[in-house]
Design a protein that fits this description.
The protein has about 280 residues and is α/β, with parallel strands linked by helices. It is about 40% helix and about 20% strand. Helix 3 crosses helix 4. The protein is globular, with a radius of gyration of 22 Å.
């Protein structure tokens, strides 16, 4: 990062700035090298594939692998970078490859920046009803605006929707640059009355990828909102993730969808397992 910044400075302010930055990097490197600690990082095996990602990118990768088709957002720290990443890689070459991934390579992911978080959640809910794998991403103040759409409409109508919630310090607009994990109760109990929901909290970058993938499956399998919690520290820090995800394990589960004409079809039929048959309008 320092070298990248110094190159930028050298273009703007001449070669001296580059030399100053280079000298600082060398001094810090030599000093750090001389410090004796008990901390050791084992080298990564060269025959293993690995990726370096932050939490925003990890969540985005998990969603793309999970067959995401429609993502909404309103810019907010630290959630917006996830949507930017999806937008930049909306048509991608995916490995491992699933049937949904093959379709994604042709169709891409629709990413929409809405005018506010109320529109973001309601537009994602509409996409979910229409049959698209839909999600949105936000942070504290944004999620507050999404309560009525999520806790009212999506919960009542059993709409499959994923809400990735990046926790930051509150209350109100709080401190957008500070980390927090204080929104668990809010997510568990948001909305008036009660409705079923699934809440996932990721502990590291590998879990963030896997949880984002699972969230899309669970939303459609159980027909309910799924909240995926990621904190700001995880969102903005980088980690090396060994890319050894099992191809066979990545299966798209769209749940109970009615694809044939049924004169006796009832959307909210009472069933033994509590999941009603879902149809795609039109």
């Amino acid at each position: 990062m320092c070298l990248r910044a110094s190159r930028m400075c050298s273009r703007v302010g001449g070669g001296k700035l580059f030399e100053y930055n280079k000298a600082i990097v060398e001094v810090v490197y030599d000093y750090a090298k001389s410090i004796k600690t008990n901390i050791s990082l084992p080298p990564i095996k060269r025959d293993v594939r690995a990726i370096i990602v932050n939490g925003n990118e990890a969540a985005a990768i998990g969603k793309i692998l999970g067959g995401l088709r429609f993502q909404t957002y309103y810019p907010i720290t630290p959630a917006a970078d996830e949507s930017f990443f999806i937008e930049a890689h909306n048509i991608v070459s995916l490995d491992p490859v699933t049937e949904e991934a093959k379709a994604l390579e042709k169709a891409g992911v629709v990413v929409v920046q809405t005018e506010d978080e109320i529109s973001a959640i309601n537009m994602a809910i509409g996409a979910g009803i229409a049959g698209a794998r839909a999600a949105t991403a936000t942070s504290g103040p944004g999620l507050s605006l999404m309560v009525e759409g999520t806790g009212g409409f999506a919960g009542m109508n059993e709409v499959p929707i994923v809400i990735t919630h990046y926790q930051r310090a509150g209350p109100s607009t709080g401190m957008a640059t500070r980390n927090s994990q204080s929104d668990l109760r809010f997510v568990m109990h948001m909305g008036h009355g009660e409705f079923p929901r699934i809440v996932i909290s990721s502990g590291d970058h590998r879990e963030t990828i896997e949880d984002a993938y699972k969230a899309l499956n669970w939303a459609e399998r159980y027909q309910m909102p799924v909240f995926h919690l990621v904190d700001k520290a995880l969102a903005n820090s980088y980690s090396t993730v060994i890319w050894d995800i099992d191809k066979k394990a990545l299966k798209i589960d769209r749940g109970l969808i009615v694809t044939k004409d049924d004169n006796d079809y009832r959307r909210f039929r009472i069933t033994k397992d509590g999941v009603s048959p879902r149809s795609i309008p039109g």
